[in-house]
Amino acid sequence: MANKRSPLWNYFEIEKDDAKYVVCLICKSKLSRGGEGKKASTSSMKNHLQSKHPNKFSEIYGGPSSTSCAGSKTFSSTSSFASTSAPAQPASHKQLTLAETVERKQYWGINDPKSKEYHYLIGEMIALDNEPLSMVDRVGFNRLMHKAVPRYKIPSRTFMTEKIVPDIYDRISKK
């Protein structure tokens, strides 16, 4: 038999009939090891434990097995600057659906609440910094905004003049 150095082996045993497979001792699920001998790995065991038995997974790897935000990835640092008091967190990957991928690439609508928030922030910046409304047409400003908030489409000068500036004026004059 292979050397069982991984703590994962506390939760799995090699299937008696076929060494390419292991059986989870917790739920009796049969998992492929990817091959026999040197070709066998513990990746499927680790993934199974992480997704099906997160409590056991965190006993081995120290810490929660899920990420703090859906779709985000957790990376552990291996540099000398890493804190030695906190254990490393494994990366968690979630593949997006086609609809989610397409949605991430689309601009927010002009009346979307997130867009409106940026419209007003740009309007306030123009007023506070005494910038011309043509600022929204500048290449550098557009590059900055696209890099910072890829889904935000900067409105035209006309939109800012007709909608945002009067609304900001009304808000301030009511105070």
Secondary structure topology:
Layout: E1 12-14, E2 21-24, E3 30-32, H1 43-52, H2 54-61, H3 98-105, H4 113-128, H5 139-148, H6 157-174
Antiparallel strand pairs: 1-2, 2-3
Helix pairs in contact: 1-2, 4-6
Order of strands, widest sheet: 1-2-3
Q: Uncertain regions: pLDDT < 50 for 5+ in a row?
A: 65-86
Give the count of structural domains.
2
The helix tally amounts to 6
Could you spell the SSE succession in H and E letters? EEEHHHHHH
Strand-pairing-aware structural class = mainly alpha
- How big a fraction of the residues is strand? 5-15%
Radius of gyration: 27 Å
Structure description:
The protein is mainly alpha-helical and 175 residues long. 40% of the residues lie in helices and 6% in strands. The protein contains six helices and three strands. Strands 1-2-3 form a three-stranded antiparallel beta sheet, covered by helices on one side. Helix 1 packs across helix 2 and helix 4 crosses helix 6. It is rod-shaped.
Short description:
The protein has 175 residues and is mainly alpha-helical. It is built from 6 helices and 3 strands; from the N terminus they run E-E-E-H-H-H-H-H-H.
Offer a few descriptive terms:
single chain; 175 residues; mainly alpha; 3-stranded antiparallel beta sheet; 6 helices; rod-shaped
